[in-house]
Design goal:
The protein is mostly beta strands and 106 residues long. The radius of gyration is 13 Å and the shape is globular.
Length: 106
């Protein structure tokens, strides 16, 4: 049985996203849930565990759309059904991204 190793509160967020791994091409994805420590995504593309890169997604903050770009590392990538489930742990967030995610989590 797998144990959920994520820390902190998570909130469902289902929007389109873009994954850009270091040295790679942009890959389409969809967000699944979000927290201050990381984000869960689904994609038809496999990414390597331990690889670094960035994730870009848009979410509503105070009723206004805001694009959030974060750097981090792939914690897991599991094939399930017809897509990959990707866990992405954030590197330290910049103030803008941290503020947007904090407001969204309320």
């Amino acid at each position: 049985m797998l144990v959920d190793s994520r820390q902190g509160a998570r909130k469902i967020l289902r929007v389109r996203a873009m994954i850009l791994m270091d040295g790679g091409s942009p890959m389409g994805a969809r967000t699944f849930d979000l927290g201050l420590a990381g984000i869960s995504l689904t994609s038809e593309h496999k990414v390597n565990v331990g690889a670094s890169g960035q994730v870009l997604f848009e979410m509503l903050v105070d009723g206004k759309p805001q694009i959030v770009t974060t750097r981090g590392k792939v914690n897991h990538c599991i094939f399930s059904g017809d897509e990959f489930k990707i866990g992405f742990v954030f590197a330290p967030l910049d103030n803008e991204a941290a503020g947007a995610i904090t407001k969204f989590m309320r």
